[in-house]
């Protein structure tokens, strides 16, 4: 079931976000640099803050036990490249054990329906350039590569593809 997130989901969203982020980006051991970043950004308090903002929307995939994925859409988020609206898919996270189950596709479909309801012509996202699986997923779903940007953590940056999906 896909449903809007609520404040009682904040700790589950934080735990799921931390699990997915570490599993996706930390491949060769955890060091303090990445641990500090992850523990700062994936907290219940941070998700509570997001869930109270009118320009932020989170939809969750709920199974019989709990949340196994979420999509976070942010409006008022200028793209790092021209020819994109200010509507961003900030995150689409599915627990690793549920990847390949269709949960990501269902979340993306629900997220794109929400995006279409905003009246904007398109939505954009940034995906780590090394995350070939995620990039291929979005391209299969109709996104197009429209540029490049960098994901910044302190003084380090990482290449990201900018992808756009036309809603109209």
Task: Please characterize this protein's 3D structure.
The structure is a single chain. 35% of the residues lie in helices and 33% in strands. The chain has five helices and seven strands. It has helices at 10-25, 32-41, 44-51, 103-117, 132-140; strands at 2-4, 56-62, 67-75, 87-94, 122-128, 144-153, 156-166. The chain has a four-stranded antiparallel β-sheet, sandwiched between helices. Strands 5-7-6 form a three-stranded antiparallel β-sheet. Strand 6 and strand 7 (156-166) form a beta hairpin.
Annotate the secondary structure layout.
Blueprint: E1 2-4, H1 10-25, H2 32-41, H3 44-51, E2 56-62, E3 67-75, E4 87-94, H4 103-117, E5 122-128, H5 132-140, E6 144-153, E7 156-166
Antiparallel strand pairs: 1-2, 2-3, 3-4, 5-7, 6-7
Mean model confidence by pLDDT: 94
Helix and strand sequence? EHHHEEEHEHEE
- Estimate the helix proportion, in percent: 25-40%
**Uncertain stretches of 5 or more adjacent residues:** none
Largest sheet: 4 strands, antiparallel
* DSSP strand content: 25-35%
Structural class: alpha+beta
Shape: globular
What's the count of strands? 7
Radius of gyration: 15 Å
Terminal-residue CA separation: 26 Å
Enumerate the strands of the largest sheet in spatial order, edge to edge or round the barrel.
1-2-3-4
Number of helices in the DSSP assignment? 5
